């Protein structure tokens, strides 16, 4: 009789524990980076009046373009480190009929980290943002 109670207790306990968030923390979840890796340096270089070629040189190819033409490019950077909250930054670059930047807008998910904070997380392969001057000083 005691063995049956213990077995029933063990089954109920194991079923209840599988739904706990504590158990989920033990499960490995990879860091997930999606979209265009956007740095603060690139955003500072991006300006109204630049051509599409200049934007591609600074920001790379857009993740999405407008379905109503090629006059809006979207750059989305989304990051989810293991069990932490998702951070997402979206930059929309608007062009006129001549292919010149006329407006730049950005948006973010509520509670998202800044670009600097996302870059400092050290997840996946970090992008080296040092200039050549920094490299030459360390060599001498």
Structure report:
It contains 6 helices and 5 strands, in the order H-H-E-H-H-E-E-E-E-H-H. It has 140 residues and is α+β, with helices and mostly antiparallel strands. Strands 1, 2, 3, 4 and 5 form a 5-stranded antiparallel β-sheet that branches.
Short précis:
The chain has 140 residues and is an alpha+beta fold.
Features of the shown structure:
single chain, 140 residues, alpha+beta, 6 helices, 5 strands, 36% helix, elongated
Which sheet architecture does the biggest sheet show?
Answer: 5 strands, antiparallel
Taking all residues together, what is the mean pLDDT? Answer: 77
Shape: elongated
The amount of beta strand, in percent, is: 15-25%
What is the helix content? 25-40%
Low-confidence stretches: none
Number of helices: 6
Rg (CA only): 23 Å
Number of strands: 5
**First and last CA, distance:** 80 Å
Which structural class should the secondary elements be placed in? alpha+beta
The H-and-E topology, N to C, reads as HHEHHEEEEHH
Secondary structure layout plus pairing:
Layout: H1 2-17, H2 21-26, E1 32-35, H3 40-45, H4 52-59, E2 64-65, E3 72-80, E4 87-95, E5 101-108, H5 115-120, H6 132-139
Antiparallel strand pairs: 1-3, 2-3, 3-4, 4-5
């Amino acid at each position: 009789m005691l063995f049956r109670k213990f077995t029933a207790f063990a089954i109920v306990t194991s079923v209840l524990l599988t739904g706990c968030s504590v158990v989920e923390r033990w499960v490995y979840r990879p860091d997930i980076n999606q979209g265009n890796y956007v740095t603060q340096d690139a955003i500072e270089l991006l300006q109204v009046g630049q051509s599409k070629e200049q934007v591609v040189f600074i920001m790379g190819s857009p993740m999405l373009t407008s379905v109503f033409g090629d006059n809006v490019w979207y750059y989305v950077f989304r990051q989810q480190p293991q069990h932490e909250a998702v951070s997402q930054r979206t930059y929309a670059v608007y062009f006129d009929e001549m292919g010149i930047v006329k407006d730049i807008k950005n948006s973010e998910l509520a509670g998202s980290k800044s670009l600097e904070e996302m870059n400092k997380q050290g997840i996946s392969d970090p992008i080296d943002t040092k200039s050549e001057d920094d490299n030459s000083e360390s060599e001498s």
